[in-house]
Amino acid sequence: MTVTPASKKSGTARTKRRGLTIPRVFSTAGTHPYDEVEWERRDVVQTNWRTGETVFEQKGVEFPSTWSVNATTIVTTKYFRGALGTEAREQSLKQVIDRVVRTYTAAGKENGYFATDADAQVFSDELTWLLLHQVFAFNSPVWFNVGTESPQQVSACFILSVDDTMDSILNWYREEGLIFKGGSGAGLNLSRIRSSKELLSSGGNASGPVSFMRGADASAGTIKSGGATRRAAKMVVLDVDHPDIEEFVETKAREEDKIRALRAAGFDMDLGGRDITSVQYQNANNSVRVSDEFMRAVEAGGTFGLKARQDGRVIETVDAKDLFRKIAKAAWECADPGLQYDDTINDWHTSPESGRITASNPCSEYLHLDNSSCNLASLNLMKFLRDDDTFDVERFVAAVELVITAMDISICFADFPTEAIAETTRAYRQLGIGYANLGALLMATGHGYDSDGGRSLAASITSLMTASAYRRSAELAAALGAYDGYARNAAGHQRVMRKHAAANDDLRTVNTMDAAIHAAASREWQAGNTLGTEHGWRNAQASLLAPTGTIGFMMDCDTTGIEPDFSLVKFKKLVGGGSMQIVNNTVPRALRRFGYTEETIEAIVEHIAEHGHVVDAPGLRPEHYEVFDTAMGVRSIAPMGHVNMMAAVQPFLSGAISKTVNLPESATVEDIEQVYLEGWKLGLKALAVYRDNCKVGQPLSTGKSAQGTADAGAAAASSAQASSGAPAVAPQPATDGPPRAARKRLPKQRPSVTTSFMVGGAEGYLTAGSYPDDGLGEIFLRLGKQGSTLAGVMDAFSIAISIGLQHGVPLEIFVQKFTNLRFEPAGMTDDPDVRMAQSIMDYVFRRLALDHLPFETRSEMGIFTTAERARYAETGSYAPAEDDLADLNELMDEDGADGSGTPSPTAGAAGAAATAAPSSAGTTPAEPAPAPTPPARPHSSAELLELQQGQRADAPLCMSCGIKMRPSGSCYVCEGCGSTSGCS
């Protein structure tokens, strides 16, 4: 059902006002924004690499050449409308932007937003320019629905209401289903429902809210929202004084125990597995709404009363600290529940006379009245960083003005899933402007995420954004009228505006960059509050920080929402297929800001490419390490670093922040208690935590951890089947061990290359012999004098490696194992492609990788030639041009290389003699056995981090393309296809 009542054009069209004059800031008069960029055609093919299945294919789509392959894929697969293979299918980004911008512009003209038709044209040009250049993006429902024949649902976030009646409860199920179907998420508070400890009018006991959660969870699990862009997303909230609070707190933790038991018994309990549907409460985020009274009782070690829903009498008294411990323990076990701080939320409520804020959307960033919605949009902060590392305040303010105007226009034409939501949204016109790429901006400007300077800059930008948004809202009110609910809530709204301005006054800046932004924010707050006091505001809410998962990748952002950088090395898709790893472009920019020489920058970037972190990077001063701290891996940001960043920006947001505070697997229940307590003290509105590896109901990436889990599960299953009656797992055939590999001998004459080298003053020779048509087959190392112990060890090592190669062990396995080994001699080399080596072995296998492995394989390991590193410094890409790459592949084919061989081996007597020892061992030739399976190559930044640093990125696998996802706000996002685990 879609509600489109006659009163849809609330307040905007019923009185003719003067409209707005739209300044031209970004676009060029007389030139269409499309004519300013270079366009190209691309083929988009999306496969699930684990199954080999092609899940999407559309050829010849048109995008600007500056858009990444990843952004192209995400927009094509998620936002192009029309059936594949038909003329109705969109083929170009121009069509997507046009259908959205034309709808917004037409609605703005119809509802009196523009002073003249010329202003409407400027609005259209400016909006097109911003979207085309990835300066901002609307939330996903806009791209799904606007300008199509579907209902024009523009909101990503909904808050529902449920009362203590069966009709209301069943209506809750229905309304959630409609919202999920439209590609959005919903949240609600169940605290009005009587507890299981209270009586019904008939005399029997009530079921309680937890029992009704089962039905809603099952309903959500059957609905794929947003046309397969993400699963159903929902939030369930219960007040801490509800008598069923302990049952609510423990629901998901108990289900995690069930998942472990069923997995051990051989059932498929992975996310999306056929047996996971038997587990309940998995489709919602759970949060406890805590009051200041409760938190003070926790601090004091006092008691707290649980109250009946109908008359408010205390029916049970509990130990507050004990209940708080149970909340933290459940979160330690399964990441739920999170906390929402009720008194803080309502102290910042702009519409208190219309009712309390009781719930949130699924990711806890939208907080307002029941039966309301909020449409979101996010700015790409890196687009406002000038080449001289100053922040373009004027263009940022202009972008906020335009985006807020467009978002408010959308309420005029938007459709809503229920009449109640339609009425509330049109009466309060809640908006949610936010940003992405904060982590990248901080790094690029030399600010540590967990530093006073980083927090000051983030707070200043957030204050400027919200101040500019509310100032524009006041201008819209002057031109078109305040929101309908403003008159009733004028005093409350003005009080909150003064609180924002006072928080801005209390903000202490650290350097000139944030001081300039803060000064602009102060001017905006003063101007906006003066205008708002006279005319009111057009919008009850203006800002929040969403996870920006899919739209963050659409804008080619390195970081999502308020998050720090996930890792310093990213996995990048290449035009025409293939992929490579790259070090974030913000890293060399930050190093230049600190004054490092280009040679030192190159060495540091190479170190990061190899290791994934900056520890012990050559020439990098330890005091600069914090700038390159990340969410995962070595030098990951401490939990309180995340909490403190949230606290820095929270006073400058109408809503809250979608963010999960990650804790290491070793964290204790007490650590989670401390995070939750500090979040309350620091004035956060909502907070969620995640302890690494606490959840088991998700697929693991391939690797040792996954294999270990599988082995453990198989062992547990064998012991459990006899007593459980579970389906038997098919027994494995008995064998005496894995099949024995057969050796493939080298011919008597074979091409070889001898390389002289020097590492840390030690001289040596490396000879590599190849099969004429099948890659590297032997090596020989000579160090020290003939007959010495070192020479003998090197001879033995050479024979071992050579026999391994001849028995099918891929060279890349040896490269992974022997690079980065540290021992003397080490240091400078005389090889221009490998300037520093941590040992002889480190050098030898880097040299072999450069000579015998293809570019794509080497790039995944961070091994590059001097020419490739120079290319990166000039173009931001290690990869050669497509034509050069094609020529290189052709050359390798002509030379008989198959991807593991040398492009142009040369024969020599010295080489043949040197390699005689390794090739002379063995017995009669045999049919070669299948080669050992090489280690799984990474397909995402999360998998790359696991490979480089040996640390598990605890995240689910994408159900569309099979790669490991990465955290984004309170959920996960796939950087391969843009799918999310629940947030827009």
Report on the structure:
The chain is an alpha/beta fold. Helices cover 41% and strands 14% of the residues. The chain is built from 31 helices and 25 strands. Strands 3, 4, 5, 8, 9, 12, 13, 14, 17 and 18 form a 10-stranded mixed beta sheet that branches. Strands 19-20-21 form a 3-stranded antiparallel beta sheet. It has a two-stranded antiparallel ribbon with strand order 1-2. Helix 11 crosses helix 14. Residues 1-15, 225-230, 698-735 and 891-935 have low confidence and may be disordered. Belongs to the ribonucleoside diphosphate reductase class-2 family. Residues 155-690 form the Ribonucleotide reductase large subunit C-terminal domain.
Contiguous uncertain segments of 5+ residues: 1-15, 225-230, 698-735, 891-935
Supply Rg.
Answer: 30 Å
Count of DSSP-assigned helices: 31
> Structural class of the secondary structure composition?
alpha/beta
β-strand number: 25
Taking the sheet with the most strands, its summary is:
10 strands, mixed
Q: Can you give the helix content as a percent range?
A: 40-55%
Short description:
This protein has 984 residues and is α/β, with parallel strands linked by helices. The longest helix has 29 residues, at 452-480.
Write the layout of secondary structure elements.
Layout: E1 39-48, E2 53-64, H1 69-78, H2 93-110, H3 117-132, E3 136-138, H4 140-145, E4 157-159, H5 166-181, E5 185-189, H6 209-221, E6 224-225, E7 230-231, E8 234-239, H7 245-264, E9 285-290, H8 292-300, E10 303-307, E11 314-319, H9 320-334, E12 338-341, H10 342-347, E13 372-380, H11 393-413, H12 419-428, E14 431-436, H13 438-444, H14 452-480, H15 486-506, H16 512-535, H17 549-554, E15 569-573, E16 579-583, H18 586-593, H19 598-611, H20 639-649, E17 660-663, H21 669-681, E18 686-691, H22 704-724, E19 752-759, E20 762-771, E21 775-783, H23 789-806, H24 811-818, E22 827-831, E23 834-837, H25 840-852, H26 855-861, H27 866-875, H28 882-894, H29 909-914, H30 916-920, H31 941-949, E24 966-968, E25 971-973
Parallel strand pairs: 4-5, 5-8, 8-9, 9-12, 13-14, 17-18
Antiparallel strand pairs: 1-2, 3-13, 4-13, 6-7, 10-11, 12-18, 15-16, 19-20, 20-21, 22-23, 24-25
